[in-house]
């Protein structure tokens, strides 16, 4: 009824399902009923993207299709070179089947159209991999030591301290060791298990809050013993001085340190060199900056691959390729790749073929796409179980 009534305005109705089988089936089952009442019905999944037949499908009064195809058609329209290449019309009314899956489980999953980058096949992941593995192994050993120390000291939380022991000092030192373990490898399974014990996670948060005071000025005392620091919330990793020394090995320590290009150029200007000599040395400086920037980025992505992305959890290996696993549904996300070189880093980690790097041309989340509709409705058979999330 909502589909029929909204279609009477002539502005178009989109009936959204989660897979092409349902989209085609529903259009064939319900199509004759709507057509009997004088409405035009079509399904975009029956037609090739960017084709004239798909453009005509969007001109129908009622258009069936999958959420991904509606989203990708919108992205392709944004990349079109002219108005005659557009396929979608204005977004008037959409009714989404399995709305909890589309707008909750997959709400923040981006739809991405990507393409090749210049020199995308060039990378240093294989060359840098042994260095990164060495640093990760050293960090893992140190984190295990910190965790063992924390367990030994924090028995005081459960009142198991022996007579004569300084409970306050044990809490302080145990909290520092625990915080170091957490900032070193937050996904360490032994650490996660230990944090589930009574009072341990609360003590970790209390210790972290103390060292985060004054804009984290005192956090350096925690981090200086680590080889790298992981900020799990922001999904970032930063090498410490110890980490830089270890990863540099016998090479020059500046091998992994970005030059201050502004200061270096200013110093060159003060030398009052001839124009040709100045430009030549400036080009060398800019080239060095670019090489080191790419190298540091590759190291950071490899560190993420080894410490934040676990095989059989975030991804699987099928047919010699890294396939991303949807964290909400557990399904394999065909055709999806992590961006910014991360997917290549995981491929290098798993010793599979490292494919050429890609760059993002267009991106949108399903949540943001469906917000563009003037009216939006949904239906689901599992609303009660999803009520808390909604």
Description:
The protein is an alpha/beta fold and 390 residues long. It folds into three domains: 2-117 and 366-379, P-loop containing nucleotide triphosphate hydrolases (Rossmann fold); 128-239, no CATH class; 315-355, no CATH class. 48% of the residues lie in helices and 15% in strands. It is built from 16 helices and twelve strands. The chain has helices at 2-7, 20-36, 52-59, 67-78, 99-105, 125-153, 167-184, 189-195, 200-211, 213-216, 219-223, 241-248, 261-270, 275-307, 342-349, 366-370, and strands at 13-17, 41-43, 62-66, 93-97, 110-116, 228-231, 236-239, 315-318, 321-325, 332-333, 358-365, 375-379. A hairpin with a 2-residue loop joins strand 8 and strand 9 (321-325). Helix 13 (261-270) packs antiparallel against helix 14.
Task: Please tag this protein with its features.
single chain, 390 residues, alpha/beta, Rossmann fold, 3 domains, five-stranded parallel β-sheet, three-stranded antiparallel β-sheet, 16 helices, globular
Please give the CATH class of the largest domain. Answer: Alpha Beta
Distance N terminus to C terminus?
25 Å
Helix content: 40-55%
Q: How many individual helices? A: 16
CATH superfamily of the largest domain: P-loop containing nucleotide triphosphate hydrolases
What structural category characterises the helix and strand content? alpha/beta
Number of domains in the coordinates?
A: 3
Query: How many strands, what sense, and barrel or not for the largest sheet?
Result: 5 strands, parallel
Count of individual beta strands:
12
Label the CATH architecture of the largest domain.
3-Layer(aba) Sandwich
């Amino acid at each position: 009824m909502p589909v029929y009534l909204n279609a009477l305005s002539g502005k178009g109705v989109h009936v959204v399902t989660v897979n092409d089988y349902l989209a085609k089936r529903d259009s064939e089952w319900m199509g004759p009923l709507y057509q009997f009442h004088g409405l035009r019905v079509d399904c975009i999944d029956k037609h090739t993207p960017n084709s004239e037949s798909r453009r005509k499908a969007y001109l129908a009064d009622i258009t069936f299709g999958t959420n991904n195809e509606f989203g990708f058609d919108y992205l392709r329209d944004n990349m079109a070179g002219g108005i005659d290449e557009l396929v979608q019309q204005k977004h008037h009314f959409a009714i989404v089947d399995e709305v909890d899956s589309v707008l909750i489980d997959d709400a923040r999953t981006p739809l991405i159209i990507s393409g090749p980058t210049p020199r995308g096949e060039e990378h240093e992941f294989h060359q840098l991999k042994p260095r990164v593995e060495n640093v990760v192994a050293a960090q893992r050993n140190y984190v295990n030591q910190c965790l063992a120390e924390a367990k030994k000291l924090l028995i005081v939380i459960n009142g198991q301290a022996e007579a004569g022991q300084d409970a306050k000092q044990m809490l302080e030192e145990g909290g520092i060791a625990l915080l170091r373990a957490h900032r070193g490898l937050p996904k360490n399974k032994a650490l996660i298990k230990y944090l589930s014990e009574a009072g341990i996670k609360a003590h970790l948060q209390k210790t972290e809050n103390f060292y985060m005071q004054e804009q984290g000025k005192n956090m350096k005392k925690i981090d200086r013993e680590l080889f790298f620091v992981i900020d799990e919330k922001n999904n970032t990793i930063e090498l410490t001085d110890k980490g830089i020394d270890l990863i540099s090995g016998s090479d020059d320590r500046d091998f992994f340190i970005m030059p201050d290009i502004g200061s270096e150029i200013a110093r060159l200007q003060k030398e009052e060199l001839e124009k040709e000599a100045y430009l030549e040395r400036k080009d060398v400086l800019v080239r060095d900056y670019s090489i080191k920037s790419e190298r540091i980025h590759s190291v950071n992505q490899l560190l993420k691959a080894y410490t934040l992305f676990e095989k059989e959890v975030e991804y699987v290996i099928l047919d010699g390729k890294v396939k991303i696993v949807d964290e909400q549904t557990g399904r394999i996300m065909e055709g999806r790749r992590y961006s910014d070189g991360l997917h290549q880093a995981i491929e290098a980690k798993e010793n599979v073929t490292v494919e050429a790097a890609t760059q993002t041309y267009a991106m949108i989340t399903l949540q943001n796409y469906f917000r563009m509709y003037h009216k939006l409705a949904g239906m689901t058979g599992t609303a009660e179980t999803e009520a808390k999330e909604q």
